[in-house]
Amino acid sequence: MLPATFKLCAGISYRHLRNMTGLRRTAAVALSHELEKLALVGPGPSQWINQVRRRSSLLSSRLEEKVFNEAEISYIKQGQEALKKSMSILGEQDGWKVEIVAENGDKVLSKVLPDIGKVFKLEAVVERPLDRVYGELVDKMESMGEWNPNVKEIKILQRIGNDTVITHEKAAETAGNIVGPRDFVSVRCNKRRGSTCILAGMSTRFGGMPEQKGYVRAENGPTCMVLHPVLEDPSKTKLTWLLSIDLKGWLPKSIINQVLSQTQVDFAKHLRSRVAMYSNVSLC
């Protein structure tokens, strides 16, 4: 039986067979069973049998991981592309124009890019550790409407693996209803590279969330937030937020620029209040 098992395992080395998940699982289970039999026979090369058995067990566990369908793979790729484009934009240091400098040092800059248009970049420091800020922005994403008055609601429509989600966001109306109700359907990707966390996203299409009555379906992306500890004080977090949005509709550019840059300044202020509030609660 063992020779036949090895032939089965060898067969899945061919690309067209390796993509057959059921066959790979069968080969791994068969190999594991044969190694168990050999181990019970008596004296023999037990060391290499144990080594192969461990590797076989690891292979079997990996094959139990979820296999993504074509649509899910497409969403994962979109998220990764948003991350790649966003980091490329942030990597270019030239050409940024200052829009706002707040009294606390928060800064909003802008830049016009071919094929994308005007993008905005917020640079701010939040006086809390990275994990707390990350938890608020990612783990508690759907609670953002509780503390950010510019957001009415965020709902996760689908989770794909550990790093990708599809969301529906409803933006709150601006003061004086200068910009009417907007909503977004986005794919979001979060990655951690050492002590740096990157939260990237862009607009996407999702069959379960068609355009909503009373809302203009706007588009965003590539956009991202980059979080990392402040070098001089790791108890604080440096936040860089790249924002690219097409609000749609007939809105003067001057109004759009004013609304988006102020939205970023307001976001930093509300985020600080949120993480400070939870820190105070935890100390009680």
TrEMBL record:
The keyword Methyltransferase does not apply. PANTHER family: STEROIDOGENIC ACUTE REGULATORY PROTEIN, STEROIDOGENIC ACUTE REGULATORY PROTEIN, MITOCHONDRIAL. It is found in: Mitochondrion. This is Steroidogenic acute regulatory protein, mitochondrial. GO terms for cellular component: mitochondrion. Plays a key role in steroid hormone synthesis by enhancing the metabolism of cholesterol into pregnenolone. Mediates the transfer of cholesterol from the outer mitochondrial membrane to the inner mitochondrial membrane where it is cleaved to pregnenolone. The keyword Mitochondrion applies. Gene3D superfamilies: 3.30.530.20. May interact with TSPO. One of its GO terms (biological process) is intracellular cholesterol transport. Its main location: mitochondrion. SUPFAM superfamilies: Bet v1-like. GO terms for molecular function: cholesterol binding; cholesterol transfer activity. Keywords: Lipid transport, Lipid-binding, Mitochondrion, Steroidogenesis, Transit peptide, Transport.
